[in-house]
Amino acid sequence: MGIISPSQFTENDYIIFAVGPTGAGKSWFCKKLFENRNIPVVKIRQHVKALRCNLVDKSTNIVVVTIPSLYTDHEDSVAENTAINWSKLSFSAKCHSGILFPHSLDSDLTLSSALMVRHLEALGKALPNKFVVPSHVYVVPTSKPDSTLPIEESSQRLSQLSTVVSTLNGNRGHKWHASVFPGVFRGQPEVAWNAALLLLKDVTKTQTNEFFTPPRPSLRHMPARLPDARLALKELCDLLLREFKKSGSDDLGALITLARTSLEFTPPEHPYYYSGLISLANVLRERFEEEDGDVDLDEVIVLRRTAWECMRPDDPERQTVLLDLDDCLYERFRRGGAVADLEEIISLRRAALERTPPLNRCRQLLNLANSLVEKFEKLGLVTDVKEAIDLGRTALELCPQGHPDRALCEDCLANYLDAKTRKRGARACTTEVGKNSPGSTPSDIKQFVKKIVFEALETIPLRLLHTPTGTLCNRDIQLSHFERSPQYRQLLSMMSTCNSQPSAAQIHEAVKEFFRFATLSHRWASGEPSLRDVEDTNIYDVDGGDGLEKLQHFSTLALRRGFSWAWSDTCCIDKGSSAELQEAIGSMFSWYASSSLTIVHLFDISDTGSLADSAWFERGWTLQELLASHAVLFYTRDWSLYMDRDIANHKVDDALLKEVEKATGIEKQHLMNFYPGLDNARSRLHWASRRRTTRPEDIAYSLFGIFGIHLPIIYGESAKIALGRLLAEIVSRSGDVSVLDWVGEASSFNSCFPADLVPYQMVPPIHTIPSDPARPNDLEPERAQKLYSKLAGLPRAGFGNNKLTLPSIIHQVTAVIPQESLTGPSCYTYAIHASGLMPLEVTLSVNLDKGASKYILVRPWHPKTLPTQASGDEDTAWELLEQLKQPFNALLLRKLPHNEYSRVATDCMITAHPQDVNSILDSQVLIPEIV
Question: For residue 441, is pLDDT > 80?
């Protein structure tokens, strides 16, 4: 361990200050950084440790400095002497720096905000005048490996910590730019380095323009970073990535972050930019092979495709990248069957064939031919199979007798010829009545029918209960049941004799009819049977508790109603498989929609009870089950039909439907004919706002099907984050700003979203004023057209990088006047004056700052509300003015540093009234980024 002086720091150096209170894990965190044997550890005078990396010809240094607690509640002599020693350091250079602030999740977070501010201010005072106080603060959650903190409590504390950290931004006029590291440090060096490098990435991005106003004029203009600075950080990322891989690290998430950070530090114009793309793709591929996540596979494909396009045509590694991309695309095609993937595979294989020497082309020819045959089987284009046969013959000519690939070529060519005759035979049988098909053998016919059966089975659940036998059947057993059925024998007979031959659509219909199934909708209770409880057994032979008894009643009831197949969410999903659980949650809406009957068991309703009294109407998952199902029957506690209404579908019973409408608040037309999608998003959220789920995140996941949205299921994230992701997707895909109409507590995910669904219980009031049929004489067409053009140029609202971009008409607040509050000591009422609006009052649970210039009132805008205008159409301009004269629900935004805003949550809707036509014509527009 050497000794260095602060005077050795240059303007090319990055310095990370590890700041924090005693017990937060600061020393532990830095120790993990200091452990790396390939990065030297040095001392800066006494009491101060530093880690120093000399990278890129030693022109850039990265220094991690562990400093003492400069603020302490107990000013003992040791702490005081240490602080004095630290303050004597003479930093003579204008280094670029940031702050890492470890914070223990095992500690009390109630005083965290004040504690952080005191430590940061103490650091600012201790640093000498020549050194610029860093503005970037990265708070790293820490937790001891033996911590007994439950997962849910840990998730809540992470959310609470995010809220606390957000208060640092703009604190007391300081330009703190604080954020929370998206993970928890539990002693892993990979995680420690991820936090350090992500901080450096932020410092690099903003360079010198985010620092405090320096105390001396000479520091007002700091030199821009040299181009090598980013490459220094990339080199460090690559070094660490190699080290952690070599040491056998199993934290793929941390390795992926390192690879992603390395790529972000590499300029796209760098000659080896493609190597960063490949490195990230390789780590993501490892996680895909472990977790089977489609999102990872999609990103791997994008990265490999980009790398291939970046590389020089003569680069020897380009062929390897092409083959890897081919492999990934084929994996995705195998899963989803998208023709676009197959087309790209064919294009890649053609490119690979062109770059292969003629004598070595055998395997490449066969690969291309195989993909053409798959396309032929998918689309039926004869030109594809003909080309495949020609390619197979060419490959065979390259492999004379005795060649190791000769047998492979012969086998592949035979397969291509079989594919051509098999397809032709099937087509002849289904289109030419009365003619036998000499090319269709019994095995060909069975294979053809089996293929269509498998396609039909993709639309139903992976596992079904066979009600006559009480056994749980997977896909193979389902197929076995069908192949023993009279329907299957009839199909084979019709295909083989070509007498009234069925089409593919008719085979689909026969399979669908055979697998008609009923679904169970219920409120879960204790003792529900799982997959492990019922697989490889007969449910009718097993004794169990109430949960198993419920399953038995459901199965026999389905059988009595004429269904040989039934599905329950208790035992028909392998919840131990994250991939299957993800697929089941994403498919559940379509499964209920595909079922022929949904049996609803109301365990808490007797014959004389009322539907509205059942807890079934208060649960989150049952909402999509009610809406998706086309046919529903309600059964009471003892499995008798509700109100003895013995009809095939309670959804067509007007009297019962009125009860359901009253219990749910959902209009009749939606109950009878519901379609998933993003229309009327605010109404759909209102339907779910009084419902609850056992697992907090499920309140959002249960709505994915209702909105027709597919997002990753991440159990362990907080309900706020799950709901935030859902709302962000709704806004991104639809631009619908009605989801912003709420009052209550804001989410830590984004201040424009609520913390939960409760605020959507209130239906926003609609305030209107009568339209004036008489057009004013002083209407100025040019001003009206200018306003129309401004609004026509606004995009839809969107969401990205945790920010809501909200196109709006804005009104600058000019005065914030406190009023006497009549609602209680924790509420504050203000009179607000804003340009172009009548004065209004708002009630909040937080104090507003005195500076009115910090606030704006906005009218969120959606392009679909703009009237359609013909050329020179003054009527449209008049229609727009009439629309903008109406009162509207405004949002109050607070300006933050870095051109960002946050929404100020209120306790009531802010109903704003425009002043007059002139103020409307002078309206200003803005697209604020809201965090």
Answer: no
- Cα separation values, 614 from 600, 709, 758, Å: 11, 29, 20
3-state secondary structure of 630: coil
Range 804-808 average pLDDT: 95
Structure tokens at 394: 């060419």
Q: Greatest CA separation found in the chain?
A: 105
Q: How far apart are CA 162 and CA 152, in angstroms?
A: 16
Phi-psi region of 229 (alpha: psi -120 to 50; beta: other; left: phi over 0): alpha
pTM: 0.55
In whole angstroms, what is the distance from residue 488 CA to residue 513 CA? 12
pLDDT at 771: 64
Q: Helix crossing, 442-457 with 475-483: angle to 10°? A: 130
CB neighbours of residue 443 within 10 Å: 9
Helix boundaries (H) for 432-517: 442-457, 475-483, 486-497, 504-514
Residue 626: C-alpha distances to residues 589, 636, 670 (Å): 10, 16, 10
| Crossing angle for the helix pair 486-497 and 504-514, to the nearest 10 degrees | 170
Residues 6+ apart with CB under 8 A from 512: 456, 459
Q: Which two tokens stand for residue 337?
A: 């069957």
Q: What is the token pair recorded at 489?
A: 């024998």
Q: For residue 269, count CB atoms less than 10 angstroms from its CB and return exposed for 0-12, middle for 13-18, buried for 19 or more.
A: exposed
- Cα distances from 163 to residues 103, 158, 198, 896, 928, in angstroms, run 14, 9, 20, 15, 21
Compute the C-alpha angle 89/94/100, nearest 5°. Answer: 70
Give the integer Cα–Cα distance in Å for 708 and 186.
Answer: 38
367: left (phi over 0), alpha (psi -120 to 50) or beta: alpha
The answer to whether residue 206 scores a pLDDT higher than 60 is: yes
467: CB partners within 8 A, 6+ apart: 555, 556, 558, 559, 563, 564, 565, 566
Mean pLDDT for the stretch of residues 402-426? 79
Is residue 585 within 8 Å of residue 504, measured between CB atoms? Answer: no
> Containing H/E element for 53?
strand 49-55
Q: How many CA atoms lie within 13 A of 798 on its CB side?
A: 6
- For residue 48, is pLDDT > 60? no
What is the DSSP track for 831-854? EEEETTB--EEEEESSPPPS-GGG
478: left (phi over 0), alpha (psi -120 to 50) or beta: alpha
Taking a C-beta distance cutoff of 8 angstroms, is the pair 583, 633 a contact? no
For residue 55, give the 3-state DSSP assignment.
Answer: strand
- For residue 244, give the nearest of 311, 208, 197 by alpha carbon: 197
Cβ partners under 8 Å of residue 832, min gap 6: 813, 815, 816, 817, 839, 840, 841, 842, 855, 857, 892
Contact 673, 601 (CB under 8 A): no
CA distances from 204 to 57, 233, 237, 626, 760 (A): 19, 10, 14, 52, 41
| Residues paired with 142 in a beta bridge | 104, 185
Sign of CA dihedral 847, 849, 852, 858: negative
Residues 55-72 have a mean pLDDT of 63
pLDDT higher for 83 or 751? 751
8 Å CB contact between 702 and 584: no
Q: Which residues pair with 96 in a beta bridge?
A: 14
Q: What phi-psi label fits residue 282: left (phi over 0), alpha (psi between -120 and 50 degrees) or beta? A: alpha
pLDDT greater than 90 at residue 774: no
On whether the CB atoms of residues 828 and 848 are closer than 8 A, the answer is yes
